[in-house]
Amino acid sequence: MSATDRIWTAGLVIIGDEILSGRTHDKNIAQIASWLQVQGIRLSEVRVVPDIEDRIVEAVDTLRAANDYLFTTGGIGPTHDDITVDAIAKALGVQVVIHPEARAMLERYYTGRGSALTEARLRMARVPEGAELIPNRMSGAPGIRIGNMFIMAGVPHITAGMLDSLTGELEGGAPLLTETIGCWTAESEVADLLREVERAHESAQIGSYPFFREGRVGANFVIRSTDAETLKSCVDTLCEALGENGLDFTPGGI
Amino acid sequence: MSATDRIWTAGLVIIGDEILSGRTHDKNIAQIASWLQVQGIRLSEVRVVPDIEDRIVEAVDTLRAANDYLFTTGGIGPTHDDITVDAIAKALGVQVVIHPEARAMLERYYTGRGSALTEARLRMARVPEGAELIPNRMSGAPGIRIGNMFIMAGVPHITAGMLDSLTGELEGGAPLLTETIGCWTAESEVADLLREVERAHESAQIGSYPFFREGRVGANFVIRSTDAETLKSCVDTLCEALGENGLDFTPGGI
Question: N or C: which end of chain B has fewer CB within 10 A?
Answer without folding.
Answer: N
